[in-house]
Design goal:
By secondary structure, the chain is mainly alpha-helical. The chain has a domain at about 100-140. It is built from five helices and five strands. The chain has helices at about 15-20, 55-65, 70-75, 80-90, 120-135; strands at about 35, 40-45, 50, 105, 110. The strands form two sheets. It has a three-stranded antiparallel beta sheet with strand order 1-2-3, with no helix packed on it. Strands 4-5 form a two-stranded antiparallel ribbon. Helix 2 (about 55-65) crosses helix 3 (about 70-75). It is elongated, with a radius of gyration of 19 Å. It starts with 13 loop residues before the first helix and ends in a 7-residue tail after the last helix. About 15% of the residues are buried. Bound molecules: zinc ion (2 copies). The site of one zinc ion has 8 residues, from loops.
Length: about 140
């Protein structure tokens, strides 16, 4: 896993994170505010009902279906492809090594669905190549 990529990835904004997580806020039964537990579940302080955000749904589905494909996870966990892409891009979810439907970026090690490089690295490499070609940047090494 090469780590010579100097630009650090911008952290997702809270708003964006919230949109993808779709965090449950109150108990559907007693309408009490839910408490977030250490294990990632949301629990009602009154009736102890458990709720999950989209990330937990995906994690839970993967636990039971470690060989699931990208589409199967979205379908099984009932989250959107956009949600899952976001969780993968931000390294919020890990895929078991044995799962052949996913691979890792040859450059940064991030989990990707297909190909050799993640979108970030593909773009970064492309931009850098262009700069080298146009003489804006000297090739290293
Ligand atoms: Zn409740
Ligand atoms: Zn990458």
């Amino acid at each position: 896993m090469a780590s010579d990529q100097k630009e650090s990835k911008p952290r997702p904004s809270g708003k964006e994170l919230q949109r993808h997580l779709n965090t449950p806020l109150e108990c559907k039964i007693c309408h009490k505010m839910l408490n977030r537990r250490r294990d990632g579940y949301y629990q009602c302080p009154s009736c102890n009902s458990l709720y999950r955000d989209n990330l937990m749904k995906a994690k839970e589905f993967l636990l039971n279906n470690p060989d699931a494909s990208f589409e199967e996870i979205c379908e099984g966990a009932r989250i959107s492809e956009e949600n899952l892409t976001f969780f993968l891009d931000n390294e919020m979810i890990s895929i078991p090594d044995t799962n052949k439907n996913f691979s890792t970026c040859k450059y940064c090690g991030r989990i990707i669905v297909a190909g050799r490089y993640c979108n970030n690295c593909a773009l970064y490499t492309f931009n850098r190549l262009q700069k080298i070609i146009t003489g804006e940047e000297d090739p290293e090494e």
